[in-house]
Write a structure and sequence with these properties.
The complex is a heterodimer.
Chain A (H helix, E strand, L loop, with lengths): L1 H35 L4 H38 L3 H4 L6 H31 L2 H18 L3 H30 L6 H28 L3 H8 L6 H31 L6
Chain B lengths: L3 E10 L2 E11 L4 E5 L6 H8 L7 E6 L2 E2 L2 H6 E4 L11 H11 L5 H10 L13 H13 L5 E5 L7 H13 L6 E6 L2 H4 L5 E6 L2 E7 H8 L3 H8 L3
Parallel strand pairs in B: 3-8, 3-9, 6-7, 7-8
Antiparallel strand pairs in B: 1-2, 1-4, 4-5, 9-10
Classes of the chains: A mainly alpha, B alpha/beta.
């Protein structure tokens, strides 16, 4: 049944998100076209406009993925549509699991569309070499592997945004347990959930720092860290983010399993 | 084994008690009217049976099992509000029900929709609220369920449509199934009721066989209701 729920959740999101994907790609192509034409004042202005539109569409994709995932979650679990959702022969864990996977998939798709748009708009051999050289010089300076740097940055950005999204789900579940002021409490608990998750990351690093003086140095000094410490911190941060997201997902499932009180 | 059994059910919102010590048994093959004034707890009781609310205390059993996946397979529920995703077409909603409910008969649904002159290719967002409610009724009555729970199915519709809805209900459930109909439009449905439940201020104040009640109180269900709930 999880697969069936997910199928309809993905369809819903695709219906709402596809326009942003199409527009981002369209403005990326337009940007490339206008910047490849012989430059005049007007061509340059149009190029700048399409470039701005593309960036705003890419930002919209991330923003809308989060907001629409929250709206879908609220509408289908606590509003009118919940009368159908909760009377389907599926478990509460499956309902949450479907929303979790749907948001995860669309976050990944959003990131991919964003990267592809940038690639379409700006890729040239020279720029690619420039980016590679910049990353290489950073990796040589820090004595770190290039692919490790790129993967870590992308993964940490993704996990940070996904953590915000999951905090929103947790806020909605706890906020909707209240008899009054459900929306306000949803915001409040979502915000608290996010702040707590960030605090937990810092506390975890501090705890590791008690056993590792290099890690502790981020709390005690402003000195540059060596490559081993950066490596360790990055891996630990990714690990703790994943653990927090898993913990949040388990907490959401458990809270939802206790039952709902729909309006 | 009873089709539906409720034991010592209570529901409160904070200090406000909405349902108080509800005990109820409904067996197979009955059409039961859940009757009461507005805001006395009819919908709350129905929502509890359908897992839309969490009881403060007490238990609900459907065919001997607590509320969950198994009970939802055998309950067909028509809520008082429109619950379908407005972005979907009627045909997509039919596929949706077919995907989730093993006992859903899509051919029957298409036939009933055709009888009602509803286009299955139409988008729900383009339909009036009344049309959407008809689609929902068709979807619910196209399930071969053991228990149909209809919350205010006659509310807000004209008398001609009310007759059609009642006919649809009567002609589309099997004889072993039971139907619970919540309404305050008693005159319209009393002819089809086997049992009546009067609910007031969160308590069941009467649960009786319809004919026995009419004989005992010497009047129609509607008259008895008006006497009992006189303001």
């Amino acid at each position: 049944m999880l697969g069936k729920l997910l199928k309809y959740d993905l369809k819903y999101m695709l219906k709402n998100m596809s326009i942003f994907y199409i527009l981002a790609i369209f403005f990326a192509i337009a940007t490339r076209v206008f910047f490849s034409l012989e430059q005049t004042v007007i061509i340059n202005i149009i190029g700048q406009i399409t470039c701005g539109c593309m960036f705003s569409m890419v930002a919209s994709i991330i923003f809308n993925t989060i907001i629409r995932s929250w709206i879908r979650f609220k509408d289908s679990i606590y509003k009118d549509e919940s009368y159908l959702t909760h009377t389907l022969p599926v478990t509460k864990v499956e309902i949450y699991g479907s929303r979790f996977l749907q948001s995860l998939i669309f976050m990944i798709v959003g990131f991919i569309v964003g990267v592809v748009s940038l690639f379409i708009a700006y890729y040239t051999k020279d720029r690619w070499i420039l980016i590679k050289d910049t990353i290489n010089s950073i990796s040589v300076g820090l004595n770190l592997n290039t692919s490790f740097i790129v993967t870590s940055i992308i993964l940490l950005c993704f996990l940070e945004v996904f953590n915000i999204l999951q905090s929103g789900f947790l806020g909605l579940i706890i906020g909707n347990k209240r008899n009054n002021g459900k929306t306000a409490y949803s915001f409040l608990f979502g915000f608290i959930g996010y702040v707590l998750s960030q605090t937990f990351v810092i506390l975890f690093l501090f705890f590791v720092g008690l056993f590792n003086s290099n890690v502790m140095s981020i709390f005690t000094s402003t000195a540059l860290m060596d490559n081993n410490t950066i490596n360790l911190l990055t891996v630990l941060s990714i690990l703790i983010y994943i653990l927090i997201i898993i913990e949040m997902a388990i907490r959401c499932s458990k809270e939802l399993k206790k039952g709902v009180n729909v309006e | 084994m009873e089709l539906l059994e409720i034991k010592n059910l209570n529901k409160s919102y904070g200090n406000k008690e909405v349902l108080k010590d509800i005990n109820l048994k409904i067996s197979n093959g009955k059409i039961v009217g859940l009757l009461g004034k507005n805001g006395v707890g009819k919908t709350t009781l129905i929502k509890l049976i359908n897992d839309l609310l969490t009881p403060t205390s007490g238990e609900i059993f459907v065919e001997g099992k607590t509320i969950g996946v198994e009970s939802k397979k055998v309950i067909a529920y028509l809520p008082e509000r429109t619950y379908l995703n407005k972005q979907m077409k009627v045909s997509e909603v039919i596929n949706y029900f077919e995907d989730f409910y093993d006992n859903f008969n899509s051919e029957k649904a298409k036939k009933l929709l055709k009888d009602l002159n509803l286009d299955i290719n139409e988008n729900l967002s383009k339909m009036s609220k009344g049309m959407q409610e008809k689609v929902q009724l068709v979807l619910v009555m196209s399930r071969n369920a053991d228990l149909y729970i209809l919350d205010e199915p006659l509310g807000g519709v004209d008398p001609a449509t009310r007759d059609y809805i009642l006919d649809t209900i009567l002609n589309n459930f099997n004889e072993n199934a039971s139907v619970i109909i919540s309404t305050h439009l008693i005159a319209d449905i009393e002819k089809i009721l086997d049992e009546v439940i009067f609910i007031d201020k969160g308590k069941i104040i009467l649960h009786s066989d319809s004919d026995e009640l009419r004989t005992k109180e010497n009047g129609s269900i509607d008259e008895i209701f008006r006497r009992k709930f006189k303001c």
